[in-house]
Design brief:
With 413 residues, the protein is an all-alpha fold. It has 16 helices and two strands. It is 80% helix and 1% strand. A two-stranded antiparallel sheet has the order 1-2. The termini are far apart. 48% of the residues are buried.
Length: 413
């Protein structure tokens, strides 16, 4: 198997990655077109494989005699790898054939995931976890960059709102699927089954329309502006607060609920996911028609109330109301910021636009459990959640003055 994977990887690198970029073969008039849906399916299958591994890998590592702290480091390797690779994935997506870059990434994900099933030591698990992380980072960035080519220009926000639901679907069902299969068939079987998911994604990508065009981007030499878009730096903060909120909710909601004696807290995530499915497309339409401010500022308000409600919750119904607020907050604010990043850079730089957005999201998501845990340990979960809500007020003020300065500059130009 490894021989064929290496041969396939070599073929893609030598013969395909130097081809020109992709664009739809004709002007796109419908958002939910064939190519868009195929790429969304690819993204969903890839994300499901990742989510199936998240809860099962630490348990598998501990079963091999690896300490709990080392298992935690192993889980964190994925996020660290993604953070390092993201900027380079954006540069690659802007320069190379995006369709074949996705194929390369899915084979990396499949090989890394399958490799976990044959690993019997911490170094082997880390190696394959890194390979999986590299593939996931490249795939995530390139899929969105390519999908924007199949969105009508006036529906970019709505399109990204739909497209990012693939991660929502994977987050909702992937962990439960992974844990259920591990109980029935064991951990190694889960990893091998999960490896089939990106391979299935590759089959769908093969049918995406392919039209080459002459690229105006440099074919050699990577510079700082190819890895990071400095004009999008404020959006690292604007979107980072949403990712930070996600991090502390996902990490500590169960512990806080148990401390409060609240049962049924797991329904919080289901309620929020269903609400996001209903809200996100409408928010995308508003963003496309009226602009980012009409979506982002209300999202900050809803997100702040979400954390306050969680921090003061005394029963499950307050948590459920918080879940609904979260759908209008984090659920629409994050894709709105991502769409704005894509809009501000031209089609030639959509890869770096997506990767720059993810830098802020990855960093905030990564530090949230550590910062939140330190605050909760000293002051309690209630103070942690209510205190974190202030971040949205700060972000809203910064965005207000940023938007105002942009408007003044445009008026004088």
């Amino acid at each position: 198997m490894w021989y064929y994977i290496i041969r396939m990887t070599s073929y893609v690198l030598k013969n395909k990655l130097e081809e020109k970029k992709l664009k739809p073969q004709c002007s796109v008039t419908s958002l939910l077109n064939r190519n868009f849906l195929l790429l969304m399916l690819c993204s969903t299958l890839s994300a499901v494989a990742f989510q199936m591994v998240i809860p099962t890998l630490p348990k598998y590592a501990v079963s091999l005699g690896i300490s709990l702290s080392q298992a935690g480091i192993l889980s964190g390797m994925f996020s660290l790898t993604a953070l390092v690779v993201r900027p380079f994935s954006g540069a690659l997506a802007d320069r190379l054939n995006q369709k074949y870059l996705i194929l390369f990434a899915t084979f990396l994900m499949a090989s890394g995931t399958f490799g976990l099933s044959i690993s019997s030591s911490l170094p082997m698990l880390m190696l394959f976890r890194i390979i999986q992380g590299i593939g996931f980072a490249i795939n995530g960035t390139t899929c969105i960059a390519l999908a924007t080519n199949f969105m009508p220009p006036e529906q970019i926000s709505q399109g990204i709102g739909y497209f990012t639901m693939s991660n929502l679907i994977a987050t909702t069902f992937g962990p439960t699927l992974g844990l259920s299969l591990s109980e029935l068939f064991g951990y190694t079987a889960v990893f091998r089954l999960a490896a089939l998911s990106p391979l299935a994604a590759a089959l769908f990508v093969l049918t995406v329309s392919n039209k080459k065009e002459t690229s105006t981007r440099r074919s050699s030499g990577i510079h700082l502006q190819d890895l990071f878009a400095p004009q999008l730096a404020p959006f690292l903060l604007f979107t980072g607060v949403f990712s930070f909120s996600n991090g502390i909710v996902n990490s500590f909601l169960a512990l806080w609920s148990e401390e409060q004696g609240i049962s049924g807290y797991s329904a919080f995530f289901i309620i929020q996911s269903v609400a996001i499915f209903l809200v996100r497309p409408q928010a995308g339409r508003i963003n496309d028609k009226k602009g980012l401010s009409y979506v982002l500022l209300p999202a900050y308000l809803f997100a702040a109330f979400t954390l306050i409600l969680i921090g003061t919750a005394s029963n499950r119904w307050i948590l459920y109301i918080a879940a609904l607020f979260g759908a209008f907050g984090v659920g629409v604010g994050s894709p709105a910021c991502q769409a704005e990043c894509v809009k501000r850079l031209g089609p030639e730089q959509r890869g770096v636009a997506v990767s720059t957005y993810y830098i802020g999201a990855d960093v905030a998501q990564g530090i949230a459990p550590a910062v939140g845990g330190a605050v909760a340990e000293q002051l309690g979960y209630s103070v942690m959640y209510c205190g974190a809500s202030l971040l949205f007020g700060i972000a809203a003020l910064i965005y207000f003055f940023y938007h105002r300065s942009e408007a003044i500059s445009m008026a004088h130009s």
